[in-house]
Structures are given as C-alpha cells and as structure tokens.
Amino acid sequence: MARAQSLRLPHGTRPDQRSGINRSLRRWLAVEVRRLRPLILLSAAECHADRYRKHFTSFAHALLLLFHGLARGPSLTQSYQTFGACRSLVALSELAVSDDPANEHIAVSFSQFAASNTSRPSDFLAGLVPVLAERVRQLGRQSAQAIPADVQILDGTFLHLSLKLATWLPNHDPSDIPGVRLQIQYTPAADLPTYLLMTDSHTNDCQALDQLLADASPVLDRWRDQTLVIDLGYYSHRRFALLLNAGVHLVTRLQQQATVCVTAERPIQQPLPALPADRIVLQADQEITLGSANNRTGAVLPHLRLVTATVAPLPAAARRGAQSVVYRLITDRWDLSATEVVQIYLWRWQIELFFRWLKRHVHLLRVLGYSRAALDLTVWLSIIVHLLTVLAAHAMGLSRRTPGLLHRLVWTLAQLSLEDADVTDPPAYQLAFGESPPLARSP
Predict the structure, then answer these.
(1) Which residues of the chain have pLDDT under 70?
(2) What CA–CA distance (Å, rounded) separates 219 from 215?
(3) What CA–CA distance (Å, rounded) separates 267 from 271?
(4) Distance between CA 295 and CA 64 in Å, rounded?
(5) CA 34 to CA 59: how far, in whole Å?
(6) Which of 234, 265, 291, 314 lies in disulfide reach of 230, CB 3.0 to 4.6 Å?
C-alpha cells in the first residue's frame, strides 16, 4: 500500500469555489459521477474486468484514470500521488483504508495501478463512450462558424511510440517509424468524434478506409446523406464509387494525375453574403467525368463537379508568410454554390484543431503504457475527457470547451464527496446503455 502524499494539484492556483460557475460545475459533475458509475459497473461486468480484483474495482480505476486525464501532471506517478492527497475523492473511490487523516493510505500501490492499465480490459472504459457521444449528439449544438450538421470529416493522426517498449509493433525495415495511426471521423458542428480506427504505421489511409467499409452496411448507413470531407490520402475512384452509390456525398481535392474529361462549363455564381468572398476567388465551375476506363483497378465517375478556386490565407497565417493556394475540388453536391463547396473543404481544418486539442491539452500523447491494451485505454480516456468537457461547457452555458474548463474540472473532481456523488439510487439513464458504439477499433 502506498502512503498518500500531500502534493498540490498541478498548474495554477485553486479556483474560487464560491463563484457561481464552480458551484454549478460541482453540482453537474456530481450528477455525472452518479450517472457514470452504473455504466462502468455494467461495462466491467460484460468484459469481466473485475474478475479476481476485490480491492481495485473498475469504478475506482476509472476515477483514477479520469483524474489523470483531467490533470496536467507530467506523469502517471504524479497523478497517482496527487489523487491520494484528495481525501474525499479517495473515499468516493472506496480506496481509503484508514479513517485517520494522519495515517491515510490508498488501498492499491502505484505498481498495481500501472499494471492494471495493461491487464484490465479497456472495454470497461470504452463502454462509456457510446452513451457520452449520444448525449453530445443530442445537444444539437452548432459551431460558432455555422458548420452544417451533415458535414463529416475523415482524417488520421500519428502517435509515435518506442519500438523497444512497444514490441508488438511491426518492424519490417530499419527506416520504419514506430507508432500507430488513429483514423477518426469527426462532426465539427457538434465537436464530436463519431468513429475511430487504430492501425499500425504500415496501413495507409486507403487501406484504413477499406477496413472502415469492410462491414459496409453499418458504416454506409451511418454516412448516408452526409457530406464526407477527405484529403488526398483517401483518394481512390473505386472507393468513391462505393460511397456515392450508397448515397454518401463527397468533397475532396482532385489528384494531379487523375484523368478528367470536362463535359460542361458552368457560370461562376456570386458567393452568398455570409461567405468570405474576399478570401475565396472562384476560377471555374465545371461538370466532369472522372477516371479512365483503361484503369482496371479504378472506376469511371460521370456527372461530378470540379470547382477551381484561389483561397487566400487567414490574416494570422499571412503574417507568418503563408501564400494563397489554388484548390481543385471534386464533389457531387450540385445543390451548393461553388463558394460553399470550397468553404466545406476549408472546414476540414477543424479536425486538425481537434487533433491538436487531444494532443496538447487532453494529453493523448501521454500514454498509460506501451502494451496494446494500455494504448487502447489511453485513446478511450482521451475521448471520454473530451466528451465530458464538451458536456460541461454546454451545462455551464459556455460557447465551447476550453483548457481553462479542463483545469476547473480536475479541481471540482478532487473535491467531490460521498454525499455529492451518492449512488444509492442510480438513475434510469443507465438503461440506454447497449446501443451499437459509434466508435470502434481495429481488431
């Protein structure tokens, strides 16, 4: 057993708990803990996460992980030690083994905690994601930029790992960069990741898209009537044909080597008043046939639209020396103006901001271990912290989630008491659990 050490919570001074927003945040977080506990217990029972673990339950493990995910400490060790100094939180997790404040201990050692991140099935935490994601989806919030709710962005980000520590990674060549790639479908209007696939570095974007579409019916049904915005990494005429035939709209850049036959020139429309006409300068709006019949592995796609435009950088980027970019975009959206097509593609940048948020503020790069199970747990924890922050921002009446809100959340969690999070009467909210998860991972 480890002695609780009196450490300060990281980064900054303690927020004023007398302020209205902190009182409201404490009440909100207490309700969330009451809601999440039965979900954790049910999820743990389904994957047998508590088998042979009498003293370290999945609920206690989840609280420790959530505290680590919200805190900005540099290491798992510091989060564990700081958690032990939060007496009310230790009591809530049922890890306290002494009622004497002068001799308070945590029921599990740090080594047991670290080992559990590898040995305990990550599904006990992943089971929270579908419910939290559905709640964010039901908020129906629109972004400050008025991004349409049907715009979906698919992109990937790379997590670098040590090959010496993550020995399960493939190593076919000395020049390989060890790590994993996360493919995420993201709804920018709701700030919601809706699908996740983790692959190794030898799986390119097109192969990852094939994995997403391997069980075609659920994925394509979910994407039907949505506008999928993708970059050149996913470029494939055959895959485009599959998506278009399933009723999925596309917006992507035209590959430079692609075969294009222009069938009609369209008049260039004036941009709508709400769109930045001074930033987007249209050059052409054409109807095309894409692809060549001589390409056996591709497909010929008739009646597509090719929009060519010059896009000026934003003022901040221009001050750093950024230059204007010419985009050639293909889409099947004939109901939009050409400027709207370009603007939809520019919104693809939102997923890059989301990746930066996960890595810089939610600390996705701060892995819980180097086994595959620990890496899975790291990813699910980051998604859960993000979803809780989005829900907290909405509950507090804030326009968006911020790093400052993360700081307030960890202080509030550290001060929750047994009375705040009384779980003797679990809410009926847990009955919604069991829907098919919106996030998935590679086998």
Answers:
(1) 1-21, 72-73, 98-104, 141-145, 172-175, 215-217, 270-277, 417-443
(2) 7
(3) 12
(4) 55
(5) 11
(6) 234
Please tell me what DSSP assigns to residue 377: H
Q: Tell me the per-residue pLDDT of 239-265, one tens digit each, with 9 for 90 and over.
A: 999 999 999 999 999 999 999 999 999
AA identity, residue 319: R
Q: Listing from the earlier edge strand, what are the strands of the sheet with 227-229?
A: 192-200, 179-187, 151-160, 227-229, 249-253, 325-331, 301-311, 280-290, 260-266
Q: Tokens 């002494």, residue?
A: 98
DSSP three-state, residue 76: helix
Q: Which domains does the chain have, with CATH numbers?
A: 2-128+367-432 (no CATH), 144-356 (3.90.350.10)
What whole-number distance in Å separates Cα of residue 256 and Cα of residue 353?
A: 27
* Burial class of residue 177, CB neighbours in 10 A (0-12, 13-18, 19+): exposed
